[in-house]
Amino acid sequence: MLIRIPPPHPIRSSEITPERVHDDRRRLVAQLGLSAVALVTGCGRSDDAQAERPQASTEIAATDSASTVAPAAGSEGRAALNVAKRSELAGGETLTPFMDVSTYNNYYEFGTSKDQPARNAHTLKTRPWMVTVDGECESPGQLGIEDLVNASTLEERVYRFRCVEAWSMVVPWVGIALSDVLARFKPTSKAKYVAFETFYDRQQMPLGRWAGFELPYVEGLRIDEAMHPLTLLTVGMYGRVLPNQNGAPLRLVVPWKYGYKSIKSIVRVRFVEKEPPTTWNILQPEEYGFYSNVNPAVSHPRWSQSGERRLGELFKRKTLLYNGYTEVASLYTGMDPVKFH
Ligand SMILES: Nc1nc2c(c(=O)[nH]1)N[C@H]1C(S)=C(S)[C@@H](COP(=O)(O)O)O[C@H]1N2
Ligand SMILES: [Mo]
């Protein structure tokens, strides 16, 4: 039986506040003994409730949409990060409010509606956290999260981020170029691709069984895409450690590709010779390719990709080729964007 999940509670733009103000409001709300949920109810946003969802009548767990649990969206307990360098790479566009970025999420391990990850992802234990790096490389090994979080090389990068469902946002991510991290493991000439895997644990992710696809979530990049300077191994956003619902403690951000390539809560990285399987492609290969480069001219079979809606905004704007990061175009010279979608 298919149970339709009601759309998430979007946030009216008048209620959107930067993180610090939001924290103050939460405190005030707590002092007054009110529910923080009162802050996030609003009128409907029509965005794509059924997009990026298995088309087959996948069983989806009925969810408690009227929950009174406050979204885990505040900065409480999330450490501030030391940032050595800042780059604005979104054409000066206004940042999407932290409140939106941390309460409107795709993280199917914690529920398939946008509001569920913020309410459920607190069950994920992000310490200790080790990432295994192996496969076609000379120095396979492990990567500890503390090593990365305390790196003196942490950078803030403001990127546009475009989900295949036609919503988008502008986020100040904090991380380190993936290429710098991968180089430590000395990939061999056989390393043509890099495969990534998300943590999966039934206890910590009880809604994972309703994700609609097999877990763990897997993703992959061609080696030159992984080594491209724009590809960011991300540990934070808005100056602090990532909220769990945004992929703590460690996720990928590939700004010229649709959001699902930016795999969350990574525990394994593997250098491989052949194109690795990827979760959405396994599920619906016609709809989700391996490359998934943002391209307004290549429609999704069920909707156009020519426009997008920024979280918190009312009207659509035009989608840019490669999400505006046209410096990656040379990676795809001679490749038909429809065939290699
Ligand atoms: N493990 C895992 N990673 C994931 C997903 C997921 O469901 N599970 N969703 C993807 C999709 S579809 C998008 S759009 C982005 C959303 O990132 P955000 O919640 O930080 O906006 O995460 C991607 N990474
Ligand atoms: Mo997405």
What is the compact description of this entry?
By secondary structure, this protein is an alpha+beta fold. It is built from seven helices and 13 strands.
Characterise the protein shown here.
The chain has seven helices and 13 strands. The chain has a single domain, classed as Sulfite Oxidase, Chain A, domain 2 (Alpha-Beta Complex), CATH 3.90.420.10. The longest helix is centred in the N-terminal third of the chain and has 14 residues. Strands 1, 4, 5, 8, 9, 10, 12 and 13 form an eight-stranded mixed beta sheet that branches. A five-stranded mixed beta sheet has the order 3-2-11-6-7. The chain has 341 residues and is an alpha+beta fold. The N terminus is likely disordered. 13% of the residues lie in helices and 20% in strands.
* Uncertain stretches of 5 or more adjacent residues: 1-46, 56-73
Percentage of residues in strands: 15-25%
CATH fold node name: Sulfite Oxidase, Chain A, domain 2
Q: End-to-end span in angstroms?
A: 32 Å
Major β-sheet, in short? Answer: 8 strands, mixed
Instruction: Please count the beta strands (DSSP E, at least 2 residues each).
Output: 13
User: What structural category do the secondary elements indicate?
Assistant: alpha+beta
Question: What small molecules accompany the polymer chains?
Answer: the ligand Nc1nc2c(c(=O)[nH]1)N[C@H]1C(S)=C(S)[C@@H](COP(=O)(O)O)O[C@H]1N2, molybdenum atom
Just give the CATH class: Alpha Beta
Helix content: 10-25%
